[in-house]
């Protein structure tokens, strides 16, 4: 199906097409280019113009450029614009304008990508569904997702992220969601914001992009919930809180063998659903998702049934059998809130020794060492048998732990991974968690090299 003709793309971006073309997709990476794609020559670590010839040779139908690159014929299928990123934003804006379905925007300090995937899976069978790939949630990821959106999309799920103040609102105004959900507000990127209240204000700015009358789905019972509610109210949104006492709430959740069965009340309706995880934070996000989908006009009961097909993404809490141990791979990101949730998931699993392997939590600001040490007092930590740590910040937690619970400490994750035989034993239940830049995923890789793995989520007992 044609996504953009040269005339449509030129009208959207104000660019000049060197010749007629029609594209069926949009790509920024020659390694994953597909036949018929429009290759967008963004400038990041490297200049995308250097890869235009390769993209066309690999089957791209055209390229979006700000100049004719060397080695590319002047009559090649190109859309020439003043600035490639600005043109991508314009193409995304045009993609959003022609779509007549419903848009759901998702942000939050923790759980954006897994929650976006929950929404995508839950909408199975309810029309044409379009969602961001991977964690495409930044200044190029959001416009790219919108530019890729088919015109006949019934439901779109747009993930919106940030690292610094002022990033979310322009992306929200570009996406123009009908429903916007905040998963939670936690101590992430504190170096850029100084205090959690600043993070809450940035997250709350997603509501400024709502199509009116829009719906704001906000987490209840946070210290900063009122800040989120104030932003929603100022935007004229209908406010739906999710949490233990919210308009969307879990009533009962039973976990056995890594599977959680839930009965929930969503905007006055009772809904039953099953999640392939023991994490209660996933349960709460699922409740928020169902509230968002209901507000967007989806079939709530069908969405609840479809959630049974969702699995946590790799590196974000998937549970797997791994050669005689059970592994919770949560090595993609970490902050005090998500680490507390990970420890709680580990504590709920039974049948073996509970072992946590933890890498540094990054971007926490000047109090980072105290925040690491404070995890020793987390309620779930009392049920963890052994804690191995890696990184200079995690040394603070290592020193704060009681000696009986204190495992190995290494200054790098690679050093810890080199001692993999000392970290776990047959029958253990193992959580591996840390910020991505801590490279604690190398410990996961070492575990997988030394043990035979099943697919994540399969064979869990």
TrEMBL record:
SUPFAM superfamilies for the chain: MurD-like peptide ligases, catalytic domain, MurD-like peptide ligases, peptide-binding domain, MurE/MurF N-terminal domain
The protein's annotated pathway: Cell wall biogenesis; peptidoglycan biosynthesis
Gene Ontology biological-process annotations: cell division; cell wall organization; peptidoglycan biosynthetic process; regulation of cell shape
Compartments (UniProt record): Cytoplasm
GO cellular component, one term: cytoplasm
Reaction equation(s) it catalyzes: D-alanyl-D-alanine + UDP-N-acetyl-alpha-D-muramoyl-L-alanyl-gamma-D-glutamyl-meso-2,6-diaminopimelate + ATP = UDP-N-acetyl-alpha-D-muramoyl-L-alanyl-gamma-D-glutamyl-meso-2,6-diaminopimeloyl-D-alanyl-D-alanine + ADP + phosphate + H(+)
Family: Belongs to the MurCDEF family. MurF subfamily.
Database matches in NCBIfam families: murF (TIGR01143)
Free-text function comment from the UniProt entry: Involved in cell wall formation. Catalyzes the final step in the synthesis of UDP-N-acetylmuramoyl-pentapeptide, the precursor of murein.
InterPro entries: Mur-like_cat_sf, Mur_ligase_C, Mur_ligase_C_dom_sf, Mur_ligase_cen, Mur_ligase_N, MurCDEF_CellWall_CoF430Synth, MurE/MurF_N, UDP-N-AcMur_synth
This protein's UniProt keywords: ATP-binding, Cell cycle, Cell division, Cell shape, Cell wall biogenesis/degradation, Cytoplasm, Ligase, Nucleotide-binding, Peptidoglycan synthesis
Record-given protein name: UDP-N-acetylmuramoyl-tripeptide--D-alanyl-D-alanine ligase
Domain Mur ligase N-terminal catalytic: 23-93
PANTHER family linked: UDP-N-ACETYLMURAMOYL-TRIPEPTIDE--D-ALANYL-D-ALANINE LIGASE
Domain of life of the organism encoding this protein: Bacteria
Record flagged with keyword ATP-binding: yes
Alphabetized GO MF terms: ATP binding; UDP-N-acetylmuramoyl-tripeptide-D-alanyl-D-alanine ligase activity
Residues binding ATP: 108-114
EC number: 6.3.2.10
Main location: cytoplasm
Keyword Metal-binding part of the UniProt annotation: no
Source organism of this protein record: Paracoccus shanxieyensis
Domain Mur ligase C-terminal: 323-435
Domain Mur ligase central: 106-292
